[in-house]
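hey can u check if this looks right to u? its 94 residues, i copy pasted from the old doc so theres a chance i mangled smth
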Amino acid sequence: MLLFLLLCLLTAGFFIEIFQKHILRVKDPDIHELWAELENEEWFQELNDIPETKKWIELDKQNGLLKDSYYVRKIIDQGGHREGYIRYILDKTK
């Protein structure tokens, strides 16, 4: 019974995603535009001025957290995510 319910939820999620992508034509935000918006933020410029953190930020853009457009939007808009990302980068450079 529980397995059937799980399969129904997965199937519903699949159809909702197909509906959004193909019928409503909802597109994911462009990551390069988000990176440009992020680079205009004062806190990000301060973080990017430190050579050690700049290296980690560039690696994050290639294969890390900054590759996900939804996460980048969250750290731009929400202070909690922003503080968490700053702490994450500073911990990486220690």
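The chain has a mean pLDDT of 89.
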